[in-house]
Each structure stands twice: as structure tokens, then as C-alpha cells.
Design a protein that fits this description.
This protein is of the alpha+beta class. The chain has a single domain (about 5-120), classed as 2-Layer Sandwich (GTP Cyclohydrolase I, domain 2). Helices cover about 30% and strands about 30% of the residues. It contains 4 helices and 4 strands, in the order E-H-E-H-H-H-E-E. The protein has helices at about 20-25, 40-45, 55-65, 75-85, and strands at about 5-15, 25-35, 90-100, 110-120. Strands 1-2-3-4 form a 4-stranded antiparallel sheet. Helix 3 (about 55-65) packs antiparallel against helix 4 (about 75-85). The chain is elongated. Catalyzes the conversion of 7,8-dihydroneopterin to 6-hydroxymethyl-7,8-dihydropterin.
Length: about 120
Amino acid sequence: MTDEISVTGIECFAHHGVLDFERRDGQTFVVDLTLGVDTAPAAASDDLHDTVDYGSLVAAVTTAVQQDPVDLIETLAQRIADVCLADGKVEWARVTVHKPDAPVDATFADVAITITRRAPRD
């Protein structure tokens, strides 16, 4: 049984997109994370080293979003999942990338992709 740690609504300004003006002007992306983590060791020890330091993780995710523009939010979501899974305590990561200002010629609330990735097993 795996517990879940979630951090939602991480706002990042970045320059991802297929269109030239998206790369030039940038826009806001919003990231939601849910991580599969065994929290029992941390609950027993009350020690941050026994769990995922979500403050540090959010900083690393923000850096990953803000660097190296890509065309697709699918690529960005995978990059973020890789950052999450780099922490050995994370068994799986569910990542949602929202692109609320996507260049869509219609009234809409949000464009988002959600992926789930598992840590490789030894």
C-alpha cells in the first residue's frame, strides 16, 4: 500500500509551445503533483529525511519547467515526472500540466495533460 503526497497549483512562467509567439512571449503553466510514497518511516521517526522534501521538490520542478523550452506539454510532463522519480522515496508520480492560456480559438477553461510514471524496479 502506497500513501500519496500532493502539491497542487505550482505556477511557473515559461516559454513552451509550438507557436513562435509562445516561445517569444511565454505564458503561465500550472503543475499538480501526486507522489506515491511510503510515509510510514517518516511517521515513525518524525524526520524529514525519511520522506519526500516537497519544498525542495517544488523548487526542482519549477526549475525544470522554466528551462529549455519544448514544443509539447507532453514532453514537459515527462520532464517533471523524471524530476519527481529522481527521489528514491517516490514509487510513482502523477503529473498534471495545465496550460490555461493555450492558443485555442474558443472559450475554454483549461488545457491539461496528466501522466503517471513509475520508478524503475531494481
